[in-house]
Amino acid sequence: MTEFIVAGLCIFVGVAWAEFREWLPWLAKKVLAQAVLGLPTAWRARMHEELSAELTAVPGKLSPLLFACSLWWCFWRNAILTRIDAALSKRVLRSVDIVLSAVFIFLCAPIFAFSLVATCLSCGRFGIWKTTRNGKDDVPFTLFRFQIRHHLTGKVTRVGRTLYRLSLDELPILVNVLQVDMSLVGPPPTVGRQAAGVRRSLKPGVAWLQSTQGEDLGSFGVSTLPSLRVYFKSLANVIHTALVH
Amino acid sequence: MRLSHTGLRVLKAFMDRPGVSAHGYDLMQTTGVASGTLYPLLMRFEEAGWMISSWENVDPVQEGRPRRRLYRVTGAGQAAIAQYMSALGLGTAA
């Protein structure tokens, strides 16, 4: 009886294995179809066709499945790591923005107070000028600056000219940074017209590098370390320019 | 564009055989770079204009297999790669 069961079991395993081997190419194609879903949408169709061809170049029946599994693992691991990195980079940049703008506001509080009083007196009204600019995704926000013109004559006041020359009229922008509307580093805010490309997906900022300055600006806000490199390089650039001029 | 050590290995494989087109699986065998790393890398090189790719000019029915995608380094790519490698003190065959 036992021999009969063992023989039956052996036959069953043999048939099941033979059947499984026949299913392996089909399974490899299914795994590959799932693997390419881990790629950016624009790449999927082409990569699916390309990798289907590569699958036929892999010898054996189990190896193509392993090849497809390794693709699945790498594509999905990269996709998940990229998403984590993008989320992390946004949080890190926001944290640095809050800390640095709070420190700048604290350090510049006496200058801020003095400028506000001087602007109020010279302009004949409250010294903060509010204007509308386009922010991230073209959402309008209120930008703060010190008033540099007299509210009746429209002429630039002496205090306003001094503030403008020293770039101190932009000091209230630090409040915009604390308020989420802006970042210390980002492309300049636009007026009316739509920002193009990568700029549209970024918060406007005070400092921004030119694309010719050797940094991959497209990775800003997408990957943590390149974003921080662009961030501090932009800030250093602005501080250097301010000190030189 | 910043290059990793793996990226350099792939580019070196092209520079060692200038003018030759290669498909992904062939490159995987030559360089030993894992498939999941290699294909996104090739697409990034293509986006950067360092490589161009085209479908193999074969009849899939006659060949009994799907057509493959062949990669080739462009002139701009060769210049960029040579510049990058010389900066790192690596020689190129081109």
Structure description:
- The complex is a heterodimer of chains A (245) and B (94).
- Chain A is mainly α.
- Helix content of chain A is 60%, strand content 8%.
- In chain A, the strands form two sheets. Chain A has a two-stranded antiparallel ribbon with strand order 1-2.
- Chain B is of the alpha+beta class and 94 residues long.
- Chain B has a single domain, classed as Orthogonal Bundle (Arc Repressor Mutant, subunit A).
- Helix content of chain B is 53%, strand content 13%.
- In chain B, strands 1-3-2 form a three-stranded antiparallel beta sheet.
- Classes of the chains: A mainly alpha (245), B alpha+beta (94).
- Chains A and B meet through helix 2 and helix 3 of A and helix 3 of B.
Question: Any idea what the radius of gyration of chain B is?
Answer: 14 Å
- CA-based shape of chain B: elongated
The proportion of strand residues of chain B reads 5-15%
Number of strands of chain B: 3
Counted up, domains of chain B total 1
Amount of beta strand of chain A? 5-15%
Output the strand order for the largest sheet of chain A: 1-2
Q: What's the number of extended β-strand segments of chain A?
A: 4
The rounded Rg of chain A comes to 30 Å
Chain-averaged pLDDT of chain B: 81
Report how far the terminal alpha carbons of chain A are from each other.
99 Å
Distance between the termini of chain B: 21 Å
CATH topology of chain B: Arc Repressor Mutant, subunit A
In sequence order, what are the helices and strands of chain A, one letter per element? HHHHEEHHEEH
Task: Quickly list its features.
heterodimer, A: 245 residues, mainly alpha, 7 helices, 60% helix, B: alpha+beta, 3-stranded antiparallel beta sheet, 5 helices, 3 strands
